[in-house]
């Protein structure tokens, strides 16, 4: 198991994200584990590098995971007080 790189704070999810997870027979913990260990999903190299810098500079961290034709985001706030699972259209 990979090491956690940052704190997630309070974990919340939007109704759309909960429906997404149910539709794809997934749990939020599956994606949160990837997010917190630096697997930021389907982002480009520049965005992944920005996330790596954000870990140390206490900035917002965004992961994006494409499952089938659907996409879900996970965003950890800069102050690490909370992490939200949401759909891009819910942003």
Question: Which features would summarize this protein structure in a list?
Answer:
3 helices; 91 residues; four-stranded mixed β-sheet; alpha+beta; Type I restriction endonuclease subunit M
Kindly describe this structure.
It comes from Rhodopirellula bahusiensis. This is Type I restriction endonuclease subunit M. With 91 residues, this protein is an alpha+beta fold. Helix content is 34%, strand content 25%. It contains 3 helices and 4 strands. It has helices at residues 15-23, 28-36, 45-57; strands spanning 10-13, 61-67, 70-76, 82-86. A 4-stranded mixed beta sheet has the order 1-4-3-2. It is globular.
């Amino acid at each position: 198991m990979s090491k956690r790189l940052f704190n997630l704070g309070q974990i919340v999810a939007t109704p759309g994200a909960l429906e997404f997870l149910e539709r794809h027979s997934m749990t939020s913990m599956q994606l949160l584990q990837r997010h917190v260990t630096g697997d930021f999903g389907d982002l480009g190299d520049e965005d992944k590098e920005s996330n790596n810098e954000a870990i140390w500079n206490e900035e917002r961290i965004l992961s994006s995971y494409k499952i089938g034709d659907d996409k879900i985001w996970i965003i950890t706030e800069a102050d690490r007080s909370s992490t939200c699972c949401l759909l891009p259209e819910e942003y």
